[in-house]
Every structure is written in C-alpha cells, then in structure tokens.
Hints:
The protein has 273 residues and is mainly α. Helix content is 52%, strand content 3%.
Amino acid sequence: MSALTDPHWRNAPTERDPGYFWAWQRVSLTLQRWLRDQVAERYFEDLARFENRPAAYPVIVYQASRLCHGRPRTEFTYDLRDYPECRTTLATSWKLTGRAIQAVLGRIERRLIEAGMDELAHRYAPVWHQDVLVAVKKKPKAYVDLLMAESAVINAAIDLGTERSVEAANRFGKTIQLNLRKVCGMDLQGLGVGALEEATRVLTQDQATCSNNFSDTGSLQNGDVRSAGSPDARVGGKEDGDDRRAHGRGEMSDAGVVADVDARRRDPAGQLV
C-alpha cells in the first residue's frame, strides 16, 4: 500500500517516460547489492553453516558476483531463462570476481579466527578464492537459484512502481512468497518489505536530484542525463570496474543498444517454489 500511495512511487517514471530506464536501473543496482548482502548476512548468522563448505560457497560467490546493469529500455536483471542450454549470462555474472571473492573470504576468515575457529578459518583464507569459484562452476544450481530469485523480486518491484495498481501489488506479494520463502533453507519473505524501503530511498534521492537540476527560470538543464554516482558499490572494487554490462543474450558494453522501446512488463526471470 505504501508503493501505491507514497508520492515518490506515484511520481516515479513509467515505461514511456524518458528517464524510465535510468531511474529503475538505479533501483535495480541498489536492490541487487542489498539482497546479496542480506542473504549472505542471514545465512551466515550461524557460524555452524561454515562447516558445510559446498553449501556455503554458492552464497559467497553470489555475494561477490557482478551486478547486472541491464539493457535499455526494459531489462534490469540477469535473464537466466535460457539456462542450462546457454551459460553465457551465468559466466558473465562471475567474470572478474576474483578480488570480490577474496574480500568476502577475508572477512569470513577474520570472523572465524575471532570466534576461535582457526582451523576452519584457514579453509576460508582468500588464497582459496579460485577453488571456491571452481566448486560453484561445477555445481551451479544453488547459485543460479539465488540469481533467479533476485531477478524475480526486482522485476516485480519495478512492475509495481510503474503500474501502481492493486494487481501489481498482489503480484509482488506472490513473487516474494514464491521466491523468498525458501532460500538456502531459510524463509526470507521479510526481505520484501526491506526491498521496497530500499527502492523508496533510491526514488526519493533521484527525485530530489531531479528537482535540483532546475535553474532559477524553472527549465530542466538536462532531463535525460544519467544521474551521477552509480549505486554499484562492488565488493571487488577496481577489478570489476571495466564497465561491461551483462544480459541474457551475452555481454554488452555499457548499457547496450536499445531494445523494444514499447516492450511492456517483464516476465520474472525465475521462481523458487
């Protein structure tokens, strides 16, 4: 109901607005980062989960994976509907993630050492980052499930923000239930509310920035220029800074070419039942 009544949601750009892709791209990037951190944080609340390394590795790679910058005008997340026939998108999601995985492992190692679990901490030393990724590549199902759930939730949130109807709100709720009810053995449906709060924060910032772009005469200085400061705060930092973008049909440079400008609502990339 907040999304249906909040002024920042009601003033968010729809599919035919010039700023549609850029506004919702920022929302998608923020939600990708937020969901990955939240899933990892909740999964590893119990230190005993580190004992099962085959189950822990997909979560680690998921947290460190590359954010999807989408493709104008209507695609904002990784599209894995062609998996497993085609693994191009999957390969893109973990390309150049060496430093990011090392950073995640470094934090895990320090945490385990502080807990007095030195022997287990050694198993998560950053030096093993390639072994972690290789293990996930060999058995990627758990990792794929995480990316597909993420895409479904984000696309449902964007649909809610552009359609702004009771039907879209119901679809969002159903998507949360289907995709977050059982994530790595956890019920994470509570993240649905947090996702909307994060989206609201981004929309509020974007609309405030847009308002500041008006001159004293009230004319918009540059209505179509992409907002400065991408929310893509990657764990890996510089290594992931080649500005390549990912899409289900392969890798692309920057935001890519314009697809169907009249395309309507996206289908969820996948669902976990």
